[in-house]
Design a protein that fits this description.
By secondary structure, this protein is an alpha+beta fold. It is built from 13 helices and 39 strands. The longest helix has 29 residues.
């Protein structure tokens, strides 16, 4: 798995604490009944003398509320209490009104939802259950998780020898799912994080493995953790959606925990990562535009961390290690006159005029461990302009880069032995990569999966020795053959070409009469989610057209693509979206009366803005946990993410130009009486990132504007849109289980 520092580069070379990889297994049901789980003893280390007890230690912390940061002016208690009471009363009244509206409307769709549920469950059983869960190989052993059960098997025997080490229920966390697993180098300890769907915080549990697994320690509010040595664990704590402290804890005879690192800048978020050869543990401090890395020598885990390169505004970097050299994936440096394929003493250069005529976004560089500052960084490989680095994996003798260019996926293999680079174009239908979880550093084969919204994951293997790509057959998984993939380019307002990926059924006729579902995001340098979803495949089978608009602000074409769509460039993303939908209609993909727009989280900004500025382009809009009141949110510095998000949206408190600009596109601020499309919004009562009050107020204001317009025009057959809000009591910010996703 990649750390956050690497994810900065992979997500359009920016960082956001909002989005980190999550596992969402189904609810705990152990399929391996014939192997009895071992009894798990709970070790209570809260006192000086450890005793066994039967009750599980710790618990998932309750959902946090927003709290003021240092430097925030706190009003007097009397005024503050009055304001809170008024705000709470308004919130309760709005919520009660929307819940009543939902209860009146939802029965209308019962027959339809019953049919959809049955079809989705059929597809889920057909595809998802065949995919299996990630395997983690450690020497002769393989560890894996299935439905809340942790298994151990011998690598050569496969799952036939699998035995259950323990289950989530054994630990007293039946309502949580396993988010992360890390095993100590000597396999004596296993650290796992458990997360409830109703909270952003995870609890880390350290198990001492053996004939009788024992809970050694429970640490609440943990974000990331890595083993620096056999019995030395480093971890970060999360508070108010921020990670700024790094701790070290030991499990030897002299057990102790100490603070190792504290980040003082509220814009920065800290996480941990181990280099693939386990030589260094890296402490990565990242904002959305800048990063800084500290190294912990795993041979000397108690020594103070050493700085690789002090943070430099605009420079993001991630560290790997190989043979006393640091390999640095970074945005540092100006474009060179030549593109260096491999720049050691055996440089093979290609003139940019014949290969790449523009600026590259990121580079692979290297430097000696002892001299790691940026003046010693040497270029190894540079990416072309508009090429997105999707993932990156370092092996003992090779480096693999997963690249995206103009919507197509490529595999780039750099050999440190033969000093060569091989570029392999992957199948045209593929939209998403997923690397094998925790591949062995010395392996001769790299395993990964390819998928698309309508193509279930397919397994592939690249052999370093044979220098070829192999598609691995999976039994009993039907092959999707009736879906056509089309890639288009729409010309935006400033002549920029914006990629669109379109899926439709090959057998569909008269596409202009078919319903169209358009997807958009366009923020934080993050790509649109194009992984396989059962509902997307069902839509294709039902005759829908699916379109994914890769607008500016996202990361589909690298760092510059993101920069061109953030802060004072945010309107470019809106212009891109409008151009994409217009082109789709012009080319005969549906028509406005059959077009719906879907977005989640920050994608709600562009979707909501289009709904205000060009409502005639769409008939319906579906939003999940949408960010739709940018101005008011960015004016409230006591909210936990406001300061961090200034690098994406700007700072309206200190910049009047920025305030006016945000106000010009903010969905909530620009609602007016006009003919709106129908709108369906899903929100979460426990969402700590998007306050529910803002969504409630948006829905009320939008509904009022639509009704005002209808009353003024009074034409026969006047269109009055449905504006529906479903507030779900469980789940949190677009992170839901299969069951919750199915219900929605």
């Amino acid at each position: 798995m990649c750390c956050t520092g690497l994810r900065n580069l992979l997500q359009g070379l920016t960082f956001s604490a909002k989005y980190y990889s999550k596992h969402n297994p189904p609810q705990t049901v152990c399929p391996y009944i014939k192997t009895r789980p071992k009894k798990c003893h709970i070790l209570d280390c809260s006192k000086s003398t450890c005793t066994h007890r039967t009750a599980a230690p710790g618990s998932i912390l309750p959902c946090r509320f927003f709290s003021c940061k240092e430097g925030t002016k706190v009003p007097s208690r009397k005024k503050q209490n009055t304001s809170i009471v008024t705000s709470d009363l308004l919130h309760k009244n709005l919520l009660k009104s929307e819940q009543k509206n939902w209860n009146n409307i939802s029965p209308t769709y019962q027959a339809m939802t019953k049919k959809i549920r049955e079809k989705l469950e059929e597809l889920h059983n057909m595809y998802t259950l065949n995919s299996g869960s990630p395997r983690m190989r450690c020497g002769e052993n393989v560890y894996f998780e299935e439905n809340g059960c942790i298994f151990l098997a011998k690598a050569d025997d496969g799952e036939r020898s699998a035995e259950i080490l323990f289950t989530v229920e054994d630990l007293g966390f039946s309502d949580a799912f396993i988010q992360r697993i890390r095993i100590s180098p000597d396999q004596r300890y296993m650290a796992i994080s458990l997360k409830s769907e109703n909270s952003e915080e995870a609890t880390c549990i350290i198990m001492k493995l053996g004939n009788l697994p024992v809970v050694e320690k429970v640490i609440p509010s943990v974000f990331s953790f890595e083993w620096a040595a056999n019995d030395v664990l480093y971890y970060t704590t999360q508070k108010n959606l921020k990670c700024q402290n790094v701790f070290m804890t030991t499990f030897s005879y002299q057990k102790h925990t100490k603070l190792v690192y504290t980040e003082q800048d509220a814009r920065f978020f800290v996480d941990l990562y181990c280099t693939k050869d386990r030589r260094f543990l890296t402490i990565n401090s990242n904002s959305k535009t800048t990063s800084e890395v500290w190294l912990v020598d795993c041979r000397h885990p108690f020594e103070s961390p050493s700085l690789v390169q002090a943070r430099t505004t605009g420079v993001i970097y991630h560290i790997e290690h190989r043979k006393d050299q640091l390999y640095i994936l970074t945005t540092y440096g100006e474009p060179a006159e030549y593109k260096a394929i491999l720049t050691d003493n055996y440089i093979d250069r290609i003139n940019l005029d014949t290969y790449c005529t523009s600026y590259r976004n990121s580079k692979l560089m290297k430097a000696p461990v002892a001299s790691s500052s940026k003046e010693n960084w040497q270029l190894v490989y540079a990416l072309e302009k508009k090429t997105k680095l999707v993932d990156f994996e370092m092996f003992s003798d090779d480096c693999i880069m997963f690249l995206k260019n103009a919507g197509h996926l490529y595999l780039n293999v750099i050999s440190f032995v033969s000093h060569s680079v091989q570029l392999i174009k992957l199948p045209t239908w593929a939209c998403e990569f997923e690397l094998e979880s925790h591949p062995e550093h010395n392996t001769s084969t790299c395993y990964f999966q390819l998928s698309s919204p309508v193509h279930p994951p397919k397994c592939f293997a690249y052999s370093f020795k044979e220098n070829n790509l192999i598609e691995q057959a999976v039994q009993e998984v039907p092959i999707i053959t009736n879906c056509h993939t089309t890639r288009l380019l729409a010309k935006s307002k400033d002549e920029t070409l914006v990629p669109i990926t379109v899926f439709h059924n090959k057998n569909s006729k008269e596409l202009h009469r078919r319903p169209l579902l358009v997807h958009v995001y366009g923020a934080y340098g993050i790509d649109l989610n194009m992984s396989f979803k059962e509902e997307k495949l069902m839509s294709i089978e039902e005759g829908w057209i699916l379109a994914y608009c890769h607008v500016r602000g996202g990361g589909e074409q690298g760092l510059s693509w993101h920069r061109d769509g953030c802060q004072l460039n945010k309107l470019k993303g809106l212009h891109d979206l409008r151009a994409c939908i217009t082109l789709l209609h012009q080319l005969g993909f549906s028509q406005p009366n059959h077009t719906a727009l879907a977005a989640a989280s920050a994608g709600g900004v562009l979707a909501g803005a289009l709904c205000n500025t060009a409502p005639a382009l769409i008939r319906a809009m579906v939003l999940q946990a949408p960010f739709i009141d940018v101005l008011n949110t960015m004016m409230k510095t006591h909210l936990p993410l406001t300061i961090e998000e200034q690098e994406e949206w700007g700072n309206p408190l200190e910049d009047e130009k920025c305030m006016k600009y945000i106000k010009s596109y903010c969905p909530y601020q620009n609602i007016k009486p006009q003919c709106y499309p129908s709108v369906f919004i899903t929100a979460y009562d426990n969402d700590e990132r998007i306050p529910l009050t803002g969504i409630l107020q948006y829905v009320q204001k939008l509904r009022k504007a639509a009704l005002d317009h209808a009353s003024r025009t009074s034409k026969k057959g006047n269109w009055i849109p449905n504006i529906i809000l479903d507030v779900q009591a469980s789940g949190s910010h677009c992170d839901s289980s299969w069951e919750h996703s199915l219900n929605e």
